[in-house]
Specification:
alpha+beta; 3-stranded mixed beta sheet; 9 strands
Amino acid sequence: MPTIYNISELMLKALGHDSFLRDVHALLLMDDTVLLASSREKIIEKFTILMNFCSKYGMVINEIKTQMMVINGVKADRYNFTVSGVTVKHTTSYIYLGSPFTENGNMKSVIKIHTKSRVKDMNKFKIFCAANGTMPYMFKKMVLQAAVATSLLYGCESWITNNLKDAEHLYIGAVKALLGVRETTRSDTVLIEAGMPSMKQLVRERTKRFMEKELSAERGSDTPLIRIYKICEAKRGQVGSIT
């Protein structure tokens, strides 16, 4: 028996292939949905199908969170549009499943948005260290490692860049709080003293493990990531817009 999400996917696939995206029309995870289209006309067509689907099954769309991003394209592609009373507004960045995405595709801007949202988590750790000065070092280090792994490094598998200054600043600040040293202390000395890897090492290790897993024979070639990766590789250099 097909699920409600299978039905919405089938309705979109009935459109056939959409330029270089072929039959990759949407990413669906629970109530978090991303529509992919090669042009403004196509995204409006797909959004109309989604609105009809929601109307049929009594689902409500959160208009505030419903936005569109345009990769490449022209100014006219970025104009708001309305379907069945729901207006979709243009945005240059969006947080999806906890990870930021930007219209310009600049990894530096992605990391900047991500680290800005994680400042409070690193500040909480600093407060934790100040309030628990007598706690054994090994336990405070375990708390830091957990905070870094679940918060600061969340989604870092896609950070294909060496420019990690914003994330490194937060990371080093937390390590210095762990050791109880001044902010002016050399970063390399701090990492050696704490016996902790650099931010670049942590990110590279996670990226390597993730890509090895995705590209392994056991995973096959039908995962959304691999399918989109292959499409992009085949169409590298093609100018167009993805909404």
